[in-house]
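Handout, section B. The chain below has 63 residues.
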Amino acid sequence: MTAMKMLMTGLAMTALPTVLTGCVTINIYFPAAAAEKAADKIIDEVYRLDQNKGAAGEKPAAQ
């Protein structure tokens, strides 16, 4: 086999798996309502923690 033919065979063997794996796409869909509900819950917990901290020596704000 000539050197040029060996080089072309090597390139083809390298390029084919690269092209095949480059065509894979993974789509993940999250339900918008569930994501929004989870975000609201986290925000409420953070605000609750901030209200309970208050300034040094102060009582937590009444809810």
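Note. The radius of gyration is 29 Å. Compare this with the example in section A.
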